[in-house]
Write a structure and sequence with these properties.
Layout lengths: L1 H17 L16 H28 L3 H6 L3 H4 L4 H15 L2 E14 L4 E12 L2 E11 L5 E8 L1
Antiparallel strand pairs: 1-2, 2-3, 3-4
Length: 156
């Protein structure tokens, strides 16, 4: 029992020793992290969530599950395109180009959307398919909890 207590105390000391302690200002109060430092991990994770959504889109496209692609869309996008129209666009593209072979990022941008913490992540991708290539543009609204909604899709 005494060994377990010593091990627990050693673990607690090691944990405290490895924890980052913020520097103190001359008055002795800890400094606040800069807002850009706080926003970076969230923006990064939102960008990663959008990258994952690109992959999910491709899988659903390859499966010809256009209903599932439509369920990924944001209400604002649904007001611009019906499920039947999106299905027609994607099925025509699949007939012309075939299944996807891979995507390489050409560029991406992240921009804040209003006060709620949502961001718009836009990817321009060089995409290969069984029968050709295309440039695909994905626009994703990503919430602070990394839920993604397709707000724009274009293929050239």
């Amino acid at each position: 029992m005494r060994v377990a207590a010593i091990l627990a105390l050693g673990l607690a000391v090691a944990t405290c020793a490895s924890a980052e302690i913020p520097p103190k200002t001359p008055t002795g109060s800890p400094t606040s992290p800069s807002p850009s430092r706080l926003a970076l991990p969230s923006a990064y994770s939102q960008s990663v969530a959008a990258q994952g959504a690109n992959a999910t889109f491709s899988v659903r496209y390859d499966q010809a599950d256009y209903h599932a692609v439509y369920l990924m869309t944001d209400q604002s996008y649904r007001s611009q395109i019906s499920e039947q129209q999106l299905t027609s666009v994607l099925s025509d593209m699949r007939q012309r180009l075939g299944k996807s072979g891979g995507m390489r990022e050409r560029s991406h941008q992240t921009a804040p959307l209003g006060e709620g913490g949502d961001v718009l992540v836009t990817f321009v991708m060089d995409s290969t398919f069984e029968k050709g290539t295309a440039i695909q543009t994905f626009g994703w609204r990503v919430t602070p909890s990394n839920v993604t909604y397709l707000v724009r899709y274009q293929s050239e």
